[in-house]
Design goal:
- With 124 residues, the protein is mainly β.
- It is 0% helix and 47% strand.
- Strands 2, 4, 5, 6, 9, 10 and 11 form a seven-stranded mixed sheet that branches. A four-stranded antiparallel sheet has the order 1-3-8-7, with no helix packed on it.
- Strand 7 and strand 8 form a beta hairpin.
- The protein is globular.
- The N and C termini lie far apart (40 Å).
């Protein structure tokens, strides 16, 4: 069974940074494309970023491009999302998930095995 656990969320001031972690258990992350999604109150879940199984391909939503960086550490079986220059509109619960078919198209129906999420709040 594929299980993912997110961590690293918290409260940060606008302009600040956070690094989210997505740790896998029961499988090797390197074999799968992994996506980060977020859901703000009253809004639909939206894709933020995705990284291919090899790590050679990355995809970002326009709203986070240039501010967020996705990476993976095979030895730690973990995918990270470094978030810089955070804005209040980045406030959301952030989730990681496994791509069903290996694609990094940021559509939630193409992902499975969602983690429980980690809250990110950007506020002064």
């Amino acid at each position: 069974q594929l299980q993912l656990v997110e961590s690293g969320g918290g409260l940060v001031q606008p302009g600040g940074s956070l690094r989210l972690s997505c740790a896998a258990s029961g499988f090797t992350l390197a074999n799968y494309a992994i996506g980060w999604f977020r859901q703000a109150p009253g809004k639909e879940r939206e894709g933020a970023s995705c990284i291919s199984g090899s790590g050679g391909s990355r995809n970002y939503a326009d709203s986070v491009k240039g501010r967020f960086t996705i990476s993976r550490d095979g030895a730690k079986n973990t995918v990270y999302l470094q978030m810089n220059s955070l804005k209040p509109e980045d406030t959301a619960v952030y989730y990681c998930a496994v791509a069903r078919f290996g694609s990094c198209m940021l559509s939630s129906d193409l992902f499975r095995s969602w983690g429980q999420g980690t809250q990110v709040t950007v506020s002064s």
